[in-house]
Each structure stands twice: as structure tokens, then as C-alpha cells.
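Might I ask for a little of your time on a matter of protein folding? Here, with my thanks, is the record as I have it:
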Amino acid sequence: VQLVESGGGSVQAGGSLTLSCAASSYTYTRGALAWFRQAPGEEREGVAAIDDDGQMTYADSVKGRFTISKDNAKNTLYLQMNNIVPDDTAMYYCASGGLLLVEMSYNYWGQGTQVTVS
């Protein structure tokens, strides 16, 4: 297994949650790192990405609420989620080896962690 997400769960609207994604050194160093999400009955969508230079990209729906970061010493990607709203309910996936929030460009994917907002 090369990407392992954790930190999902149930949270009330307005609350906060931090997702983590532990990566093997091989997958961590290949291109950008990103979070995607998929709600029931919906297509997977990009949430946030961070490239090798630390430049971050966010979906409009999460700007100002979510923060992507990474810890190179731990090969770990994070997603800090604040002011969570019901529309944030989804399975969240981390991905590596791609470009910005272009889903098709990503080569490596985790199994996902569920976030449910009540």
C-alpha cells in the first residue's frame, strides 16, 4: 500500500477535522500531492493540491475553509477542514504524481477516508 488516508469520521456542521495521508517515499516524491473527494452519486472532484514548491491550489467550494499542507520529514499530506458544511460529506482520497487538480494526471491513489457531516 503506497497511500493511506486517516482522520475521517462524523462531524457536526461548523466543526473541524484534519485528514492525513501517509505515503511511501516513492509516491510522495512524484509530482504534486492532492486531495479529491467523491460524494454519493457524484463524480470525484478535486479539493486541494500542493506541488513540489509548496504552491497550493484549492477548489472554489473550499477556499478559505480548507488548508492543504505536507510534512516532508514524515512523507505525510494533511487536509485541515474548518467550518465544515453538509456538502463536504464525501469519501476523501489522497493522490500523488499528478498536476494541480487534474484527476486524470494522478498515478497513485489511496483507498479513501469517509467524512460525514451532520
Q: What stands out?
A: The mean pLDDT is 93. The longest strand covers residues 90-98.
